[in-house]
Amino acid sequence: MTSSQIRIEKVDKHYGAFHALKGIDLDIPKGGFVALVGPSGCGKSTLLRTIAGLEKITSGDMWIEDKLVNTLAPRHRDLAMVFQSYALYPHMNVRDNLTYALRLKGVSKAERAKRAEEVAAVIGLESLLDRFPRALSGGQRQRVAMGRAIIRSPKAFLFDEPLSNLDAALRVRMRKEIRALHDRIGATSVYVTHDQIEAMTMADHVVVMRAGVIEQQGAPLDLYERPANQFVAGFIGSPAMNFAPGVVAENGTSVRLLDAEIPIDLAMQPGRDVIVGLRPEHITVTDPQSKGAVPVTISAVEATGSSSYLFTDGDPELVLVTNGTSPLEAGETIGLSVEPDQVHLFDSQTQVALR
Ligand code: ATP
To answer: Which residue has the least CA distance to atom 9 on ligand 1?
Structure first.
């Protein structure tokens, strides 16, 4: 059994009358990489800041390596925050940026120089120790920001949207670098992002939050394949899952959806109102006359080269993704079909997943 590095039980946080965190339970194992993800204002930064000790929790308990830290000051928690790359000191070279925290602790100059060399080797910046931040690329600055955290050998790394200032290509490269670094040094990491792709690709445990509540947590692909409710289903996956109202047909094993009847892989009460969820990548194009196909008219086609997005007319609009360049054009009528086990169903009142 892996031991917990950070354990959070029934944590609440109020800012005056505002209830920012509601009954948060989270167990972060030693060596784990956990992503906190959710829309703006859901409380992910607040949760990270309570772990860091920068915000006091209102109630509940928090442990770091079996030590209760509810009221422990940030500097005694032995955690390192990694910010966006611009948080480097501009008037210090890379070596001094890396070792600043050690200097504050009174570590000798010789020891600091040794540690700087060691960490520079880990982050691949050995040849740049004398450079100033302004003479580094965005990716190199981000590595220095990581190095500054690594040099302190913290119990965990806390990342607050560290890549949000970088361009798209660099973000993709840095998320691989950060994950590789995490693995190489055997770190424990908590990573806040609003970008579900970043969360899915970097973390081994994803926590989806909304309005101060954890909606679901688990392995990235579990959340994708078995979302607990409509919110998680719509948040995880890109492009987002399509939703449309449906009614369970008389046979109980298919659903009426947009003038068609599509088979499902579970038995349900006939006549029940449901919300049908279809992932754009799970919909295939067929003959509109074929059994179980939903006839629709294409309203627009977007081609990216590697894939095509087909949008449908009607309410609600649906989107599907096909590989490569699609020969289909706006105005054509096609049939949509989905494997029964890829049809997601949600309760129309509670939005909870029905399987
Ligand atoms: P974002 O992605 O926009 O940074 P977030 O999920 O990180 O969002 P938080 O910064 O954790 O959100 O904020 C959660 C909620 O708590 C927001 O509604 C915010 O306005 C509120 N909040 C945060 N800090 C304070 C504060 N010091 N006083 C009052 N309300 C606050």
So the answer is: 43
